[in-house]
């Protein structure tokens, strides 16, 4: 689904999804509580899944540039197709951080 012009402006102003990367430990490790403690102690966000653990880590996209005291996408108009299709509202790991869900 293509974003509206207003949604694109919200995304460009926010860019939070470009600050993080999520990976899933699947299946859940037998000692998952130790994994949770390990990753949380390092500032990661943990989402428990029925079959695993989603670990979200801070990882800035290399195309984020400082403009007007904030990170913005330097290639927004030419960003990859995957970035164009990504919708933080539909991402179970990121939905609560997506500014499009606030509107």
Structure description:
The protein has 103 residues and is α+β, with helices and mostly antiparallel strands. It has one domain. The protein is 24% helix and 23% strand. The protein has three helices and five strands. It has helices at residues 5-14, 32-41, 81-85, and strands at 20-25, 45-48, 53-58, 64-67, 70-73. Strands 1-3-2 form a three-stranded antiparallel β-sheet, with helices on one face. It is elongated. The mean pLDDT is 82.
Q: Keywords, please?
A:
103 residues; alpha+beta; 3-stranded antiparallel β-sheet; two-stranded antiparallel ribbon; 23% strand
How would you summarize this macromolecular structure in one to three sentences?
The chain is of the alpha+beta class and 103 residues long. The protein has helices at 5-14, 32-41, 81-85; strands spanning 20-25, 45-48, 53-58, 64-67, 70-73.
């Amino acid at each position: 689904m293509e974003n509206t012009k207003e949604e694109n402006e919200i995304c460009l102003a926010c860019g939070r999804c470009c600050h993080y990367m999520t990976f899933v430990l699947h299946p859940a490790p037998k000692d998952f509580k130790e994994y949770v403690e390990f990753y949380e102690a390092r500032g990661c966000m943990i989402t428990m899944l029925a079959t695993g653990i989603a670990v979200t880590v801070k990882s800035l996209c290399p195309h984020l540039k400082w403009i007007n005291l904030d990170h913005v996408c330097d290639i927004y108009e030419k960003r990859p197709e995957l970035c164009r299709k990504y919708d933080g509202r539909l991402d179970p790991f990121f939905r609560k951080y997506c500014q499009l869900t606030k509107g």
